[in-house]
């Protein structure tokens, strides 16, 4: 299908991009295009203007900022996956980015574009939520920080305002003693996750001292599994972990579609959370 007519601009700076975006409420940002272009072809989106930020070099790259890692919005999934800074400072993102679609999409799709698209079936939103990332939105009036817990508002809807562009994300470093894993259930390598689980676990004296769990495709936004996090505190690796992970589907509203019904997704959430926690904790 042919997309509807739209204007196209390629600004030379972030300030110019924000100005172009703010001047038209129906304008859309074009980054890697791996999410937006299919929507255009299917006429699920009708932007009056595309603002192409693909050549804004200052939005690309990974930087170690001491207590956190800054990832530019135009950094590709492949760059996130291979970055030594990401692998050392926030390994969960490297593990998750490696499971995004296929190599072709990972080389073209962008970290910020995937997050701004706010698809609850996307892999990276849950990982950033589990790590308490902070989104940096740029506009003509300056920058605004948005905690991950406040960024995802609804299905395909973020808290970005008109004229704002996601410039980057700050990921706090958790430090030593943490283990990470992303567990994903999907039909094919290129398919969206039917359910996914991002897990960060800190062990102490043979038991779980702290856990951070976020779920993919278990509601209109990525979900932080607080009930599981609480239930896992002080638990020794073994059957107690499985019992704690029964709470994984609590306070979720999984969708029903051609791939799975809500009950099946709730079952998957429990099973995959158990696997992710054990893998993150280094259990066999």
UniProtKB/TrEMBL annotation:
Taxonomic superkingdom: Bacteria
GO molecular function: FAD binding; oxidoreductase activity
Pfam families, alphabetized: CO_deh_flav_C (PF03450), FAD_binding_5 (PF00941)
Domain FAD-binding PCMH-type, chain residue ranges per copy: 1-176
InterPro entries: CO_DH_flav_C, CO_DH_flav_C_dom_sf, Diverse_Substr_Oxidored, FAD-bd_PCMH, FAD-bd_PCMH-like_sf, FAD-bd_PCMH_sub1, FAD-bd_PCMH_sub2, Mopterin_DH_FAD-bd
Coiled-coil residues: none
Keywords noted in UniProt: FAD, Flavoprotein, Oxidoreductase
Protein's UniProt name: Carbon monoxide dehydrogenase
Organism listed in the record: [Actinomadura] parvosata subsp. kistnae
